[in-house]
């Protein structure tokens, strides 16, 4: 199982590196090249999401004793994915701003500060949401582990009581 997870990890690393490189190229391209690059990045982001889902499925199949390490890795991969999506949004916004400015002949300097402020606030909200979601996931995992421990203790108690009755 962990070998599948590790192969997914390698695929994810290669894919995120490609996505990062392409996101950096988006603002420098023009016209159809830019549209094609945006479409390619969207496809690759979808592939990365699917890889994350596969990795999550693999983590669920790992025994609880060694699941913690893989869960931590998954959290960092999800954060990386969120960062890539935010970077891509920024590059697309820059792209749409350029198109809007070309069409309207507007330089956009007056609203640029407002837009940057809104982007910062949106990013801050997204980070907070991810933290809340991660906290919720940890709480759910902790509850599951607690339930498993209670079940084990219950079984142990039954064994001890049976042994005591035999004696």
Give a written overview of the molecule:
By secondary structure, this protein is an all-alpha fold. It has 2 domains: 103 residues, t-snare proteins (Methane Monooxygenase Hydroxylase, Chain G, domain 1, Up-down Bundle), CATH 1.20.58; 56 residues. It is 92% helix and 0% strand. The chain has 4 helices and no strands. α3 runs antiparallel to α4. It is elongated. The mean pLDDT is 83. This is Vesicle transport through interaction with t-SNAREs homolog 1A. Keywords: Coiled coil, Golgi apparatus, Membrane, Protein transport, Transmembrane, Transmembrane helix, Transport. Interacts with distinct SNARE complexes that contain either STX5 or STX6. Interacts with NAPA and, to a lesser extent, with NAPG. Identified in a complex containing STX6, STX12, VAMP4 and VTI1A. It comes from Chordeiles acutipennis (Lesser nighthawk). InterPro entries: SNARE, v-SNARE_N_sf, Vesicle_trsprt_v-SNARE_N.
